[in-house]
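Page 47, continued from p. 46.
Same chain as before, 277 aa.
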Amino acid sequence: MADPVDPGAEGAQMSFDGRMSYGDYLSLGSLLDAQHPISDAPDEMLFIVQHQTSELWMKLMLYELALARAGILDGVLPEVMKRLARVSRIMEQLNAAWDVLRTMTPADYTTFRDQLGQSSGFQSLQYRLIEFTLGNRNRAMIRPHAHTADAARLEAELHVPSLYQAALGYARRQGIALEPGLDSEPRDTPWEPRPDVVALWETVYKDPQAHWPLYELAEKLVDLEDYFRRWRFNHVTTVERVIGFKRGTGGTAGVSYLRRMLDIELFPELWHVRTEL
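Result:
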């Protein structure tokens, strides 16, 4: 039998008195002490960890989307492509999380569901900020946060152009015709598809070589929405698999509400233009 390996003998740092360690850097003491089940149900820990890790990924997603939007406004497209590609990979992680949660059966969930009160993923501030950043804006969705300072963050997002508007502004700066203000006037309602914006993207897609940066940006946005749609679909199927057609803990209609969300298009003209090509 081989002797136990001593990493210290090979130069590894083994003493951290007064030095920053891995746990110190990542604040693991606080992070790993943030799971507090309120029932004795074994699967509640899965439920908490899945949602907490999803919120961490959404935090990174918001960070990357903010950098991407700033990059588009500054015209630094290579950096933007990197950021948007990363956001799509984050969405892959969020999608994979549903696979883990689906190992929880209806019998497992019912053992602690009543303990959740009216708390619900519907109330996720970061998810709502992501939707607002991408352009799916609905002022009514601020109300669940009205009792906290979070409402101000959502309100602030409504006062700046969305990521999609930033992309349209880049197209305008490249010489493609666009109605004045369409890319710069903040909106507090969901984006509605417009024939003139479909025509804008048709110009790009019919001659990609002449508009390559914009063409590549458009495809990165389509990638992002593709993953986002999968996330919504996985959400619906997971909820139906676990609770059927019961109402959500937050009071929504549950599966029927989530199915309506499947019809939402974040960047509708980028999908509609396919029909015109």
